[in-house]
């Protein structure tokens, strides 16, 4: 698929289900930890998409074994941090770039790391500052980076996690390799559930972390191989859940359990409930859309990756919807607040935009508007929701390959029609 895709309303089934691919956030955490663990790990039902393929290749370049076995990845770990010179490509994957840099610094050797222009523009300074405070020798303040690694000394480390929780997660996963115990201190923290996800993944690979108020303590220890099942991606599931809310139908997401998952983006379910949807089952998640949606005011600081999902439901609600706490979304793959507001305005929807909020007013979108996707997979997937109500044309649909290459093949399960638009 290339050029553009047209998404148009069809006949949604009253009840349906869709199995979404594995979580990108979990897959890349588990891949990295399996890559530095002692022994052979198996990752079951992982996501295979651009972001995770980049991580897998980087681990191979560092000397780990990463091979496919059916739908699983089998990983022969290094048994510790990298100890060989290597050049690594991080693509557009923030989880690759921001996780690999600390782990490489914890090893020994000369490393170069580079990335796509999009990731080069995204902030990296806070994690580099925390690593330099532990003795890391890093050339550059953004990708490309040159690292002469001699290990990390640990100690008390201040971390600015107010822009991205990935900074704290990356430092946390590298901390067991430090020569001395490490205490990571942080103040403001966005996307807090992702740090909890990191802690859960580390525990699965036999590393424990002390959790305090505003700090995390890690003693020197080793990762051990694991047999690890990857949950469905809650961020990808969000579009299908929202589709049911929009169409007044019932969707089931197999293997996604609200009581078991640590993925913060399931918070969207609560917001859709506030708009009138009903949770029929928490596990597997089954949600039924209402006959009418109502506007809400919500804080999505902990689930900003899916604020665009809610924003694309909002025009069809009775009353405005205000989404707050999302300022850090301006430094993601795109300035997501600006991109979402701009596309909604192209559709004729009244939007108020602030530094860290978006207010979407009810309206009837203009049909067959051509929308840019800003080289951002989540913009492409979120605005497919508009196509459930009026036809919409999305440019550069292949951008979804970052996290869900099969998205437009799956989308017709909602009842929408999907066709090339040139």
Descriptive overview:
The chain is of the alpha/beta class. The chain folds into 2 domains: 208 residues, Alpha-beta prism (UDP-n-acetylglucosamine1-carboxyvinyl-transferase, Chain), CATH 3.65.10.10; 190 residues, Alpha-beta prism (UDP-n-acetylglucosamine1-carboxyvinyl-transferase, Chain), CATH 3.65.10.10. It contains 13 helices and 24 strands. Strand 6, helix 3 and strand 7 form a beta-alpha-beta unit. Helix 1 runs parallel beside helix 2 and helix 3 packs parallel to helix 6. The longest helix has 14 residues. It is globular and about 60 Å long.
Secondary structure layout plus pairing:
Elements: E1 4-8, E2 15-17, H1 24-36, E3 40-44, H2 50-61, E4 65-69, E5 72-76, E6 86-89, H3 94-105, E7 108-114, H4 117-121, H5 125-132, E8 137-139, E9 145-150, E10 155-161, H6 165-174, E11 182-189, H7 192-204, E12 210-212, E13 215-218, E14 227-229, H8 234-247, E15 250-253, H9 267-274, E16 278-282, E17 285-288, E18 297-299, H10 307-313, E19 321-324, H11 336-346, E20 351-353, E21 357-360, E22 369-371, H12 377-383, E23 392-395, H13 407-410, E24 417-420
Parallel strand pairs: 2-15, 3-14, 6-7, 10-11, 18-19, 22-23
Antiparallel strand pairs: 1-23, 1-24, 3-5, 4-5, 7-9, 8-9, 11-13, 12-13, 15-17, 16-17, 19-21, 20-21
Helix pairs in contact: 1-2, 1-3, 1-7, 2-3, 3-6, 5-6, 6-7, 10-12
């Amino acid at each position: 698929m290339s050029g553009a895709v047209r998404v148009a309303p069809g006949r949604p089934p009253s009840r349906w289900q869709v199995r979404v691919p594995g979580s990108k956030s979990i897959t890349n955490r588990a891949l990295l930890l399996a890559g530095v663990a002692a022994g052979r790990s198996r990752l079951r039902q992982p996501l295979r998409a651009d972001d995770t393929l980049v991580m897998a290749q980087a681990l191979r370049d560092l000397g780990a074994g990463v091979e496919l076995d059916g739908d699983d990845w089998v990983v022969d770990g290094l048994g510790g941090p990298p100890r060989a010179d290597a050049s690594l490509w991080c693509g557009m994957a923030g989880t690759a770039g921001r996780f690999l840099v600390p782990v490489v610094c914890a090893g020994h050797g000369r490393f170069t790391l580079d990335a796509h222009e999009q990731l080069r523009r995204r902030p990296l300074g806070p994690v580099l500052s925390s690593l330099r405070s532990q003795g890391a020798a890093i050339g550059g303040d953004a990708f490309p980076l040159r690292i002469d690694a001699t290990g990390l000394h640990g100690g008390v480390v201040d971390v600015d996690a107010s822009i991205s929780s990935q900074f704290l997660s990356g430092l946390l996963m590298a901390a067991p390799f430090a020569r001395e115990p490490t205490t990571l201190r942080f103040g403001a923290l966005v996307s807090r559930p992702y740090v909890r996800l990191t802690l859960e993944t580390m525990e699965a690979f036999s590393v424990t972390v002390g959790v305090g108020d505003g700090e995390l303590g890690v003693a020197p220890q080793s990762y051990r191989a694991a047999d690890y099942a990857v949950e469905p991606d809650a961020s990808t599931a969000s579009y299908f859940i929202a589709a049911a809310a929009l169409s007044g139908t019932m969707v089931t997401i197999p293997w996604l359990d609200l009581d078991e998952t640590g993925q913060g983006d399931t918070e969207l379910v609560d917001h859709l409930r506030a708009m009138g949807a009903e949770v029929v089952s928490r596990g597997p998640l089954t949600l039924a859309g209402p006959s009418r949606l109502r506007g809400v005011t919500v804080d999505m600081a902990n689930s900003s990756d899916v604020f665009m999902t809610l924003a694309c439901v909002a025009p069809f609600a009775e009353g405005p919807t205000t989404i707050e706490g999302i300022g850090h979304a301006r430094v993601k793959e795109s300035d997501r607040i600006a991109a979402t507001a701009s596309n909604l305005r192209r559709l004729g929807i009244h939007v108020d935009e602030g530094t860290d909020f978006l207010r979407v007013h009810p309206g009837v979108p203009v049909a067959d508007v051509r929308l840019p996707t800003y080289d951002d997979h989540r913009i492409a997937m979120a605005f497919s929701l508009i196509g459930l109500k009026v036809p919409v044309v999305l440019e550069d649909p292949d951008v979804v390959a970052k996290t869900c290459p099969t998205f437009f093949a799956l989308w017709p399960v909602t009842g929408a029609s999907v066709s090339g638009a040139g």
